[in-house]
Structures are given as C-alpha cells and as structure tokens.
Amino acid sequence: MGTHYGPLAVLRRLSLLVVVVSSLAVGSATARAQSDEVAGDARGGYAWGSGGGSAAPAGEDPLRIQAFAGVGIGFRPLRNLDQPFDQEFLAPAYLDVGGAVFLPGGDIRHGAGLTLSAPIIDDPSGGVSTQAFTQWAFTPSYHLLLPLNRYLEDMQHDIIQLQGRVGVPLVVTSKLGDSGVDFSVGLELGVAVHIKIFAGLGLYAEVQAGLYGGTNDTVHPLISVDGGLFMDYEVLP
After folding, report:
1. Which phi and psi (to 5°) does residue 30 adopt?
2. Best CA proximity match to 208, nearest among 227, 229, 183
C-alpha cells in the first residue's frame, strides 16, 4: 500500500514546490539581466549604477520597486461547518501591505515580493474564530508584471499594468485563551491591475485565490478581493 498524506501535508509539499520554482525563475532572470549588463559594458552602453554609459538598451526598462497598502475582504467557497470551526461564508476584512522588486526588462518583468496581512475585524464565524490583529500572514511571492503600453499601440505611457503572483503564506495565529501560537502554511495566487494617477502613485485592485492550512490537519480555501494605493519607483542608472 502507498503512503497516505493528509491535505495539510500535500499543501506543504505544493508550497515548497512553489518556493523552489520561484527561486529558480528569479535566479534565471537575474543571470540574464547580469549578462545583458556585461554586454552593455562591452559596447560602451548601459550599466547599472555606472553612470558612464549612455541610455538604457532600446526596449528595456530599469529596475523597478513597488510598494502598496490596501484593505480587502474574503469569501469561503467551501465552509467547514464542523466544530470547532462552524465557518461563515464571509471571512473577516483584512489589511494588506507589502512591496516587490522587478528586474530590468521589457514586455514581461520578473520580480519577487513580500506581503504582510492581518484581519482588522473579528471573524464572524460561530465556532473558533480569529480576532482582529491576532493572525499574521507573511507571504513571499514570485511576481510577473506586464506594462500594457508594451502591448497596446495607442497607449503611449506606462499608465496601466497587470500583475500576477504566486506566493506561500506563512501564517502565525495566536491561540484563543492561550499564550502560544499556531503556525501554518498555504498557497496563494493573485491577479492585480494597477492604474497610475501620477508618475509614481496610483490605485490597485487584486483578486486572490488561496488554500490555507488549519488545525487538525485541515485545509481552508478562500477567495478574496482587495484594493488600495500603490507607489511605483524606477531606479535610473
């Protein structure tokens, strides 16, 4: 007979796989960017931080740093009605803050980021519920950024962007009535749209789908939407 893995064990293995794949992808993109930098030096062109070259290679944007802050709400497509959960369809509203760094590139930008999330209201569920600011999720993620001005001829400036990400939430929760904490992992996918109001400031909206580990070797699916402000900064040579 084969070995049986519970749903939480499977989720942990999927999360580990995402981390490995993300690390390989970002490492590959970094190596390509460094190769382009060396080639630019050899022909007297663009070099990070050198200041001695001319303009950046045609069609390539510089290193980009983004930060964001927003609020969201979650929905449980599959509720765990057993005790001690007794979940409601509506999950508590939460705060989302974080940032990402995108490597130089053109049509598709590769990056890595970190998000910090916490509920800002108590969970309305009737069973064991999470209270406001007693659960913290730290989510390292691999990001893809698509500036739509690269794809739409009529869009002359970088006003609208699409961003996709895959992350591994590391969740720390305070135990109710106890001084200890619970630790769990998850898997999260997100798709966002960025709309710039000014050169480095704009609004964002994101849709997320995730699986999160819970007590008693349980897994909890969640769909959420959030939005807020984001800042966008290009590191010029």
Report:
1. -65, -45
2. 227
CB 109 within 8 A of CB 102: yes
- Strand partners for 189: 166, 209
What pLDDT is recorded for position 176?
56
Q: Which residue has the tokens 């609004």?
A: 203
Q: Is 55 exposed, middle or buried (0-12, 13-18, 19+ CB in 10 A)?
A: exposed
Contact 110, 25 (CB under 8 A): yes
Contact 111, 143 (CB under 8 A): yes
Distances 36 to 92, 110, 129 between C-alpha atoms, Å: 46, 15, 52
Average pLDDT along the chain, 237 residues, taken 10 residues at a time: 50 56 50 46 35 46 96 92 79 96 94 97 75 93 95 89 97 72 92 94 97 82 97 91
pTM of the complete model: 0.73
Q: Is 216 exposed, middle or buried (0-12, 13-18, 19+ CB in 10 A)?
A: exposed
Q: Which fold has domain 7-235?
A: Porin (2.40.160)
